[in-house]
Amino acid sequence: MNNFWKKLNKPFFCLAPMSDVTDCAFRQIIAKYGKPDVFWTEFVSADGLAHSKAQKKLLIDLKFSKKEHPIVAQLFGSNVENMKKASALCGKLGFDGIDINMGCPDKSVEKQNSGAAMIKNPELARKIIRATCEGSNGLPISVKTRIGYNSPPPKSFGRASKNKNYLLDEKWIRSLLEENLAALVVHLRTRKEMSNVPAHWDLMKRIVEIRDEINKKTLIIGNGDVLDLEEAKQKIKETGCDGVMLGRAIFGNPWLFAKRSPLKFKNYVIKKLKVLIEHTKLFEKLLGKYKNFAVMKKHYKTYVKDFEGAKELRTKLMETKNAKEVEKIVKDFLLFLKEI
User: Fold this and answer.
1) According to its UniProt record, which protein family does this protein belong to (predicted)?
2) Per-residue model confidence (pLDDT) at position 159
3) If I label 160, which of 79, 205, 234, 260 is the partner at 20 to 30 A Cα–Cα?
4) Is 104 known to be catalytic?
């Protein structure tokens, strides 16, 4: 089985998995206007995929097109057998790799001993990785996690606390790197910090050093607060990591990963609103039977901002019920733009 990670040119850039955001409609839009080097699906419950009744409902979250390769299926779960079954299914569906979510701070996920809860149970985490490898039929396995769970009191570390090393759970990172991982994605915050503080990119050098100490070829990918590709390249240069994963920067900017993006402000607004219509139609076509239209509306808050009339347009769009209504409202606004 080919390991696509080995074929990536460095530096490389990935789109972060985000629940109710990076669905198949959204990814197809991104693939068209600015494709990242690697796509991730939204995270999917391995427990659900392992049971036939729940599996039918969840398969829509694993839907993807040929244009999205290489694409990684992200799973979460703490049941060894179910992770094995779910990874086998992902192999049959044609994914290029499988990622295990060991960083999600959602309480409902943690109650299942999954996501960030794994940080507190390295032994189980390693069993989950091995089970996923076993079931994947040779697909490369990666893990997305955080630098630690709880932050110890910096005072107990004296002056050394100034460099924030006390935030990094080195035992956790090392335990993951000792497994057979093709890549390790590190969100540079602790579970306790959520996204409420700036990402600790100053800790990435140490994570790379730990990888090198173990003499592993595991690729290290940094995640957190990166706004564009230029900043991502700078982070890689400064820290020595192999790639960067960008998440929130994609909101309202389908050209994030493109080599070229619209430059003139007025034209940029027009182009963005036309993509909004296209995205909405695609969402309705692919996911209309499975997801509430309100999921699509989340994107309007980021597509429609920072230009004259944005607030009024956004208010109208939030009241829509389908793609037809959205198209009419946006086209009427575009006619208004041409007149001014």
Assistant:
1) Belongs to the dus family.
2) 47
3) 234
4) yes
